[in-house]
Write a structure and sequence with these properties.
Elements: E1 2-4, E2 11-13, H1 14-17, E3 21-25, E4 33-37, E5 39-44, E6 49-54, E7 64-69, E8 74-78, E9 88-94, E10 106-111
Antiparallel strand pairs: 1-2, 3-4, 3-10, 5-6, 6-9, 7-8, 7-10, 8-9
Length: 115
């Protein structure tokens, strides 16, 4: 889907610019999403560590992940070497101590190609 800006100034490919997966969930609770898109399930993989399983797989492991925790009190990163088309592994680190935390509000966004 192509969208042309005002005055024909730019053309944007919406399919490339939209998040292919996003989720907001309680990392200290039962992992049930508060709201989400393209999320099949979330599992607890240890303190501050979560496995997000897409409803529809990514096209490959060449996607990007961004996120936040507890109103920017924490930082979401990916686990090194864990990129997969069928799961997104994320780690919630604390800004105060740098260690893993099970934050009550975690947000994850994934951009890339769907299968």
């Amino acid at each position: 889907i192509l969208v042309t800006g005002e005055g024909n100034s730019t053309t944007t490919n919406l399919q490339q610019g939209l998040a292919k997966l996003w989720v907001n969930f309680d990392g200290s609770g039962d992992m049930t999403p508060n709201d989400s898109f393209n999320v099949g399930s979330i599992t607890d993989a240890g303190t501050g560590s979560y496995q997000v399983i897409p409803s529809n797989n990514m096209g490959n492991a060449n996607y990007t992940v961004a996120g936040s925790a507890n109103d920017n009190a924490g930082l979401i990163t990916t686990h090194s070497g864990t990129y997969s088309a069928s799961s997104v592994r994320v780690y919630a680190a604390g800004s105060t101590n740098g260690g893993a935390n099970d934050w009550t509000k975690i947000g994850v966004n994934v951009h890339g190609d769907l299968a």
